[in-house]
Amino acid sequence: MAIITLGLNHNTAPISVRERLAFPADYVIQALRKLTHLPGVEEAAILSTCNRTEFYCGFNGPNRDPLVDWIADQQCLNREDFQPYLYTHIDTSTIRHMFRVASGLDSMVLGEPQILGQMKTAYQAAAEAGTLGKTLGKLFQHTFSAAKKVRTDTAIGSSPVSVAFAAVRLAQRIFEDLSQQTAILIGAGETIELTARHLTENRIGELIIANRTYDRAHSLAQQFNGFGISLSELPKHLARADIVVSSTASQLPILGKGSVESAIKARKHKPMFMVDLAVPRDIEPEVEQLRDVYLYTVDDLRHTVEENLRSRQEAAKQAEEIIDVEVVHFLNWLRAQGATSTIRDFRTQAELIRDEALEKARQTLRSGRPAEEALELLANRLTNKLTHTPSTQLKQAGIYERHDLIAAARELFQLKDST
Length: 419
Description:
Blueprint: E1 2-9, H1 15-21, H2 28-35, E2 41-48, E3 52-59, H3 65-74, H4 79-82, E4 87-90, H5 92-102, H6 114-129, H7 134-153, H8 163-174, E5 182-186, H9 190-201, E6 206-211, H10 214-223, E7 227-230, H11 234-237, E8 243-246, H12 257-266, E9 272-276, E10 293-297, H13 298-366, H14 371-399, H15 403-412
Parallel strand pairs: 5-6, 5-8, 6-7, 8-9, 9-10
Antiparallel strand pairs: 1-3, 1-4, 2-3
């Protein structure tokens, strides 16, 4: 059985294709059960995130065509719609790929930690669906172990490498407990969405999203248990904000010195942390002159991000070395499985010979013969029974000049050269 990965991700496919191949969380278990009904698919798991959809399978088949056809059927697509974006990994390549994905080495943001949790969710869904066998189940467990080792032994996830993450990390330094703070995010693009995600993960107390289009603000806020407002409503909510992060495409400032000054007065000069990630700026530079306002721009964060990215890239090299070692460990386990049934059969045969010889020894004792004689007979019977078949096979190997088999026997039984 081969272990294969079939998938696409942010590097191979645009979002318009990725979103069409995404599997909703509430459908994954049903999809897995259907997938394992395909001829040749013995084990299966599905990882589906905003940046990738991947199918991990224990597969016995000549090619991947049945899997591609199944995906097309499940998602009501033509093969031509997504096949050019697919990649395939087999056996060692699959093992390495899963280790790299779980460690954040294949992510859009190098070293991001969320993917490990998503991998664990994929594993749990497959376990619930009953589609994990011994091999894929063990591979997932080893994947989690490898990813943990990468996190523990390298600095791959210790430094923020997006301005959104850097902004939230800076907010954590100013406010020790984000659960007691209110954040207003201005805009509804990718950067604001990422900021909202990081704030939510760090348990922000209240989240408000302001956008020129109210429906977009409301839709995005709902994803993070916040609420949306239009930009026209911003002045009356601004005084509530401990944290303000803005990232719009506006050509003119969204917040001026006067409106921020009014908000600070209403807050009785309680500090306000502001980050302007927009170019051109959303917040007038003069706001920085106000007491009790901590204003940072994208340039203030860029140096930190670039420095941290270099740090992560160095850590990624160390991570790849760890993964090389972990791949070898799993391959050793996998190869050992090929001998498992032979070992089991050999032990069963030896136990049958032992039981038979032991019963003969008991009969000898019951007949009244001395115990020493019974033990000697037991030892002789065991020796003769255990060596008879190998001796016969080795004689045949000598007759037919199977020197490879004779050499293997000497290695297997650890025989010393008697000459």
